[in-house]
Design goal:
517 residues; six-stranded mixed sheet; single chain; alpha/beta; 49% helix
Length: 517
């Protein structure tokens, strides 16, 4: 008799033995590393489903402690591979010693990995192995809730939230309803459905039912992606986004000051036909009051003469409070200032860090290290006749903060200087985040950056045009001012977070009742 049937019969047993030991730990780390490929610039968005599905299988029959360890390995590998570019900003651009930069990056990676460790622990502790409670309810709820906490705790670090991976997938249709965390919940629900469909001992009818729910979830997302919640607020506007490509290691050098100002002025003078011109973050490497009379006033006079408005990034100083701000100002038909509210940890905001870390970072004398957060509620900047939802660099990663400008804002503008991260995967990752903001809010989003990626994004998250990386460029295009509100701009993250919290609470109560009985 052929030995093949016996070999096939033993495969599940061998697989269970394999995942119980160190090989299962290694597999968890490998899955975490592969998850990075779901995000930009790679864009293999099905991996955002497959990697958590594999993790669910790896924690299916282990103790809560082993589940925590595998969740930690998964998260550590994900963030080590996904945000290694932070080393560039700390060492190459910030001048931090190599060993210390590695240590700080490792600390961040470890902290981020604690969230996935906690999600796996909760999933195993409060739901029995087998059945769908763990895979279809508790795991998606715990992971989503902890991603949300990661987005604000200790100033927040929402990078690599699962929902961002779906900017090109059918599930992006849920973004305008329940935001990026709701999309992430749908990703994890898909993982649970897939895990349950493939699990041993399931009847064919149950498998088909689970598969039908999975397909329905994705088809509904694809249909929702075609809906438009907003409408035109006026005629199209011509815009020019200026990318100065001033090297980060030269940007603040005294000898680069005059050439930088001349560069931006010359590029602007060649595009007065545009209704709106946007310069990137801190395009002017001096405080506003230092260049107001000699540079900004003549620039504004020319802007008014040509019927053009300009938004530009420049540091500002308030002598009354003695505070410094990272700002965007409006020149032309409307004057105004927006001060950055959400400062970058390590680069602009040290206050949440231990004293010894703050001392080290202050010794580096980083150009942005003296900034103060702007007020939470600031009047919207106006330009080209419309109110604008303005954000500076890292701020567009915080969806609830961007939505404060809605529904008044006719479009969104993000000015940035991603030159801190070289030509790394941080740049396409940041563009992907901006695309999700456009999808959530149903607004065009203009990104003007120093070195790239400068882009025009429509209200469906599509990149209509982009400038070449690391080249002096002016990106010309048009945008549609829009009015109206998507559901998520009214509700924010509340539905996704509340559902996750209630599901987690319900599972914990059910587990307690079962143990008491």
């Amino acid at each position: 008799m052929s030995p093949l049937p016996e070999v096939l019969r033993r495969i599940p047993m061998l697989a269970s033995e394999w995942r119980a030991g160190a090989a299962g730990d290694a597999a968890a780390a490998l899955l975490g590393a592969l998850l990075v490929l779901a995000f930009a610039p790679y864009g293999v968005y099905p991996l955002a489903v497959l990697a958590p599905t594999g993790l669910l299988w790896l924690i299916a029959s282990v103790s809560p402690r082993r589940a925590a360890w595998r969740g930690f390995l998964f998260g550590a590998a994900e963030f080590a591979c996904g945000v290694h570019w932070i080393y560039i900003s700390l060492h190459d651009m910030g001048g931090l010693e190599s060993a210390l930069a590695v240590l700080m990056l490792a600390a961040l990676v470890a902290i981020m990995a604690l969230y996935s460790a906690a999600a796996c622990t909760l999933s195993v502790r409060y739901a029995p192995a087998g059945g769908g409670l763990r895979t279809l309810v508790l795991f998606p709820a715990a992971w989503t809730l902890l991603e949300w906490v990661r987005g604000w705790f200790l100033t927040g670090f929402p990078w690599l939230s699962l929902g961002y991976s779906q900017a090109d997938g059918p599930l992006r249709g849920y973004a305008s309803l329940v935001g990026v965390y709701g999309v992430g919940f749908c990703v994890l629900l898909t993982s649970g459905l897939l895990q349950e469909t493939l699990a041993r001992g399931r009847y064919l009818r149950r498998r088909l039912a689970l598969l039908a729910v999975l397909v329905g979830l994705w088809l509904a997302g694809a249909m929702l992606a075609g809906l438009r919640w907003t409408h035109a607020a006026g005629p199209d506007l011509s815009v020019s986004l200026i990318q100065g490509d001033v090297p980060q290691d030269q940007k603040w050098e005294p000898e680069a000051f005059i050439p930088t100002l001349k560069l931006y002025r010359d590029l602007t003078d060649a595009h007065w036909q545009s209704r709106l011109i946007i310069w990137p973050e801190a395009a002017v490497p001096a405080y506003q009051d230092e260049v107001q009379l000699t540079y900004l006033d003549p620039l504004e006079a020319d802007a008014r003469k040509h019927g053009t408005d300009i938004l530009l990034g420049v540091p500002t100083y308030d002598p009354v409070s003695d505070y410094y701000f990272n700002s965007v100002i409006s020149l032309g038909s409307s004057d105004g200032t927006y001060d950055k509210r959400h400062l970058v940890p390590f680069g602009e905001n040290f206050e949440f860090l231990p004293h010894w870390v703050k001392s080290i970072l202050r010794d580096l004398d980083l150009p942005y290290s003296s900034f103060t957060p702007g007020a939470a509620d600031q009047p919207l900047l106006k330009a080209a006749g419309y109110p604008i939802g303005t954000s500076i660099c890292y701020e567009d990663a915080f969806g609830n903060e961007i939505m404060r400008a809605l529904p008044q804002a006719a479009f969104l503008v993000n000015v940035s200087n991603d030159g801190w991260f070289g030509n790394s995967i941080a740049l396409p990752q940041h563009l992907e985040i901006a695309r999700m903001r456009a999808i959530e809010t149903g607004r065009y989003l203009l990104r003007a950056t120093n070195t790239g990626i400068t882009a025009i994004i429509d209200d469906g998250g599509r990149v209509l045009a982009r400038a070449p990386m690391e080249k002096v460029s002016v990106l010309d295009g048009t945008l549609k001012p829009l009015a109206g509100a998507t559901p998520v701009t009214r509700w924010g993250d509340v539905p996704a977070v509340a559902l996750s919290f209630l599901l987690l609470l319900g599972c914990a109560w059910r587990n307690r009742k079962r143990n008491a009985g």
